[in-house]
Amino acid sequence: MIKLKNIIKQYEVNSQNIVIALKGIDLHIKEGELVVLRGASGSGKSTILSLIAALSKPTSGEVLVNGDRISKLPDNFAADFRRHSIGFVFQKYNLMPMLSAKENIILPLVPMNLSSDEIEEKLKRVLKMFQIEHKENQLVKNLSGGEQQRVAIARANINNPKIILADEPTANLDEKLSLAFIEILKELKVEGKTIVIATHDPLFFGLDIVDREIEIYQGSIV
Amino acid sequence: MLLTPEVLTILILNGIFALFSIVAFVLSIKIFLRWNIDSTSELQYKLEKESFLASTIIKYIFTIKVPLFLFFIFALDKISNVITGAMCAAGVVDATNSGAYLIILKIINLYLFAHWLKLHNQDMTDKNQPYTKLKFGLFIGLFFLFMVEIVLEFIMFSSIEIDKMVSCCGSIYSSSSTSAISTLFTLDTSLLLSIFYGNYLLIVLFYFLKNRYIFTTLNIIFIPVSLISLILFFGTYIYELPSHHCPFCYLQSDYYYVGYLIYFLLFMGTFYGLVVSFVKETKASYIASLLFNSLYVILLSLYIAAYYIKNGVLL
Fold first, then answer.
1. Which of A12, A207, B136, B155 sits at a 20 to 30 Å CA gap from A214?
2. Cβ separation of A74 and B41 shorter than 8 Å?
């Protein structure tokens, strides 16, 4: 499903200063797996997620998703790939504060030229799934942290992608809301989604729904 | 040097284009020599980033350069007002030694730049970028033509002397002209018209037969045939004067700028005719070529019909 082959990723801060984020990573994630990437801040977890989502390209190596070499995709094709195959939940949710919950959720559908009926149908499915029907018309800036996260997850699922990536999804939540997020993960796993979570939250370690925990340390798999 | 606002605009744009095209040229050489789409090496990923930068630069330069050709003609037409003896752009072209060469080069470049844009467009619609090496290879060659054009343009504008008497289009485009143009007037008009309409009918025939190479060849032939027919025959009906053969005067307001439409139709029709062989054979390109060529032929033929209806005779 997801394959990372000998991935090296360097960030050039300036000509004198190059940060090596990933040092030859090899990783294979099967369809339907829930994988937790654990490690300290700066270990390279988020970089792996951004490479799987085709948000960035490796310095060398190859990323394959369903056999497609997504690390080689030109930018316009990468955007198309993300739109159809990836749901990304960001650490700070990356919602548009001046838009309502509903408007934020349907945002990924805008470039797809769908009819209003199709958009409504997709919206209803995720609103119900993540129990935020009653908040759909509220501006997201007026929602609580937990509600904002539900909106972010709903937005990530609006296209019903096969892969869900979450970067430190519980970093801004208390324990109760974090547990609620884990319940959502259970539902997504039942649906057969492949889920990759980058986190250093101990709440995820040893969970029965997690198929694999992969420790990342200074850009390498330990 | 004659520095009208139009000339200044062209020269400033040329300066900017030259600067950016040098960057694109250096990157193009690197990409052309080392591109390997299957590779996952650091170099290839770097080249992919650089190819995006280089193709963006080239795309914007050529996207501006193609319509700028019309602005260049417009600028020549404006300059003709201040040059003694010149009645239209023809006089300005004739005013310097480089003028005629520049116009010919500009027409060739116009087709080549438009082809590069079409090639780039095809490349960007395929995730495997099959034309990348070809388009950057083509740009390496085009860069030199582009630079020659810029240099010729500079030479031409800098060598125009406004107090020097130049020939008007009436004497340049006549059988008594001292240039090579006079030889055109030895051609038999009825033979020329047979070739013109015959060429067009063959284009129509091979549109239906869908033989791309013959279709393209016919379109290539159609360019000079059309231009010569326009000068020798159709132009006289636009001017309604049997002795006026200038290919520039109908770009003026007196003729409702119809020249821009005529040249636009000819360019589009023949350009898409070339695309089917040199870029990609698509139904849309065949249709576009036939449509624009047909509109071109209909428009010119209508001038003859209109003159005949109005006057009851032909010129």
1. A12
2. no
Residues of B with Cβ-Cβ distance to A60 under 8 angstroms: 40-42, 45
Please write down the HEC assignment for all residues of B135-162. HHHHHHHHHHHHHHHHHHHHHHHHCCCC
Are B274 and B220 within 8 A, CB to CB?
A: yes
In a domain, B163, yes or no: no
In a domain, B17, yes or no: yes
Q: Rounded distance, CA B161 to CA B158, Å?
A: 8
Query: Please, is A80 exposed, middle or buried when counting C-beta atoms within 10 Å of its C-beta (0-12, 13-18, 19+)?
Result: middle
pLDDT one-digit tens code per residue, B25-81: 999 999 999 999 999 999 999 999 999 999 999 999 999 998 899 899 889 888 888
What H or E segment, with its residue span, contains residue B268?
helix B258-278
Instruction: Inform me whether the C-beta atom of residue B310 falls under 8 Å from chain A C-beta atoms.
Output: no
Residue A10, beta-bridge partner list: A20
Q: What domains sit in chain A, N to C, each tagged with a CATH number? A: 31-60+79-221 (3.40.50.300)
d(CA A148, CA B182): 79
* Residues B145 and B224 occupy one common structural domain: no
Q: How many domains does one find in chain B?
A: 2
Q: Write the DSSP assignment of A40-70 as a string of letters.
A: -TTSSHHHHHHHHTTSS--SEEEEEETTEEG
> Do B33 and B105 belong together in one domain?
yes
Which of B136, B158, B180 marks a domain boundary?
B158
Instruction: Provide the pLDDT confidence category of residue A137 given band limits of 50, 70 and 90.
Output: very high
Residue of chain B with shortest Cα separation from A5:
B40
The predicted pLDDT at position B177 comes to 67
Residue type for A172, please? N
* Amino acid found at A173: L
Residue with tokens 């990437």: A37
